[in-house]
Design a protein that fits this description.
Helix content of chain A: 25-40%
Low-confidence stretches of chain A: none
Distance between the termini of chain A: 10 Å
Largest sheet of chain A: 6 strands, mixed
Shape of chain A: globular
Largest interface: A-B, 41 and 41 residues
Strand content of chain A: 25-35%
Mean pLDDT of chain A: 96
Number of strands of chain A: 11
Radius of gyration of chain A: 16 Å
Strand order of the largest sheet of chain A: 5-4-8-9-10-11
Oligomer: homodimer
Chain lengths: 190, 190
């Protein structure tokens, strides 16, 4: 997606250790017009899947997932990282290591909003190590749902997430792929 | 906003102690089409303010804020509740009591994305005690920005947030107002 690549080139910052700062348009300040364009693109790419629900993880996945849901006319469920008081006692919970937080985080979904037989499209901001997305896949599987596709805004190829997830046999699409962040650079793969 | 009121009537749950569960369309599963309609309504109500930025707090404010930003063509900044590694050391931070979490939470904004001279429109899911929104107002003021308006999806009038915020002299608009949740009911005020 050229508009996203252009924005990363103009405003993204390589902070070292594989950390790409995109806080000006995705992770702290969000550009709704850019996210809307990304959502339209995901809707086009995944139109054929027959998805019934979008699944993401709080917090940064919400914006692209919401815009994808808008274009596909589907509800969006975001896995919570702590259990709110409105959630029933019995939940689906898995644990995934967070690269950016440097610790394990919980991913929690209420059985009220993820049922057997659903066809889930997972949308997130980054595909890095793939551990968060693998956690979302586990939650969907425990709920008896099928994951039909995985879409991310930015893939950091060098962190191996696609290698981790590929054995699942689920289509994985990223709007922008980065092959290297060595020496302070941001090298796109396409 | 009739569509939101209808949805609360159909699916909202009064859990007691003033807690309104709207996890099926706002707080855990999100209805993007409903949020888009709410965003269009906020954009209409606040069109005259000359806002330059939308401000909200993670997590549940993001969906309505993002859709408002889409309709107004404005960036959205969401205050973080923990400081990510991509944020500079020097930040704007305030502390606000969270009714639903039963503890104090931090609200953090990077000075990179909130500057003096900005005209901020605050959008959030609930106006309850008003403490989170008062925290956002403080952050904006510390940054030298002016808060031009406050919009929330659902106001629980009986929790007094409007009384807390009114002395600020900022226009406050809620799309749906609830006057009582006594005896397991959900009573709309209009």
């Amino acid at each position: 997606m050229q508009a996203l690549k252009d924005r990363i080139t103009a405003e993204g910052k390589n902070l070292g250790h594989g950390i790409l700062k995109v806080d000006g348009f995705i992770n702290h300040q969000v550009d709704p017009t850019l996210m809307n364009a990304a959502g339209a693109e995901f809707a086009r790419i995944f139109a054929h899947l027959g998805a019934t629900k979008i699944l993401t993880a709080e917090i940064s996945g919400i914006a692209p997932a919401l815009m994808t849901g808008l274009h596909m006319g589907l509800p969006v469920v975001y896995a919570r990282k702590s259990k709110p008081i409105t959630m029933p006692d019995q939940v689906y919970l898995t644990i995934a290591p967070s690269h950016t937080k440097g610790r394990m985080v919980e991913l929690i979904i209420s059985p009220e909003y993820l049922a057997g037989g659903e066809r889930v499209l997972i949308i997130d901001d980054f595909l890095a190590s793939g551990s968060t997305i693998a956690g979302l896949v586990r939650l969907a599987q425990v709920a008896g749902a099928r994951v039909a596709g995985i879409g991310t805004l930015i893939e950091k190829i060098f962190e191996g997430g696609r290698t981790l997830l590929s054995p699942l046999g689920i289509p994985i699409e990223s709007l922008v792929s980065i092959s290297s962040m060595d020496d302070g650079q941001i090298v796109f793969s396409d």
